[in-house]
Design brief:
Elements lengths: L3 E2 L2 E2 H4 L2 H17 L3 H33 L16 H14 L7 H27 L9
Antiparallel strand pairs: 1-2
Helix pairs in contact: 2-5, 3-5
Length: 141
């Protein structure tokens, strides 16, 4: 097969974000000369501090939503009201905009950034520990 070279998948080697994180960690290790555990811990803290402003913004929006939520009509039409689901949703959106309530998708904003960053981080560290860096691996022969 052309996709496998020296026991590793060519596609895995060409994944740009993982390679970029590995290169960043390697360059930090080379420049500072610090042990790997300090590089991993400090870069994890750096990533968390980078995501912190988004977390604060999300908490602010959720606070605004919690203040506005009791003032909003129900999302689904009340029984026997004669309104269709679409009419009730349109009415709900109009009322939400009238009282300047943020979108409910702010509940997912932090997760939609944090979760991919976490997966990228764990994939990069795992790839470093399995393949490229014997000094990074904890198992000694």
């Amino acid at each position: 097969m052309e996709g496998v070279v020296n026991g590793s998948n060519v596609f895995e080697e060409s994944v740009l974000p993982v390679g970029a994180v590995i290169s960043l960690l390697e360059s930090c290790h080379d420049i500072t000369g610090l042990p790997w555990w300090i590089i991993v811990a400090s870069s994890t803290l750096t990533m968390r501090m980078t995501l912190f402003p988004l977390l604060v913004l999300q908490m602010h929006k959720i606070k605004q939503i919690s203040v506005c939520f009791p003032k909003l009509p129900p999302l689904l039409p009340p029984p026997l009201s004669g309104r269709s689901y679409m009419e009730q949703i349109i009415f709900f959106r109009r009322e939400r905009r009238a009282i300047c309530c943020p979108s409910f998708s702010w509940f997912l904003a932090y997760l939609s950034v944090q979760f991919p960053c976490f997966l990228l981080w764990m994939t990069s560290i795992r790839r470093m520990s399995l393949n490229d860096h014997p000094e990074f691996n904890c198992v000694r022969e």
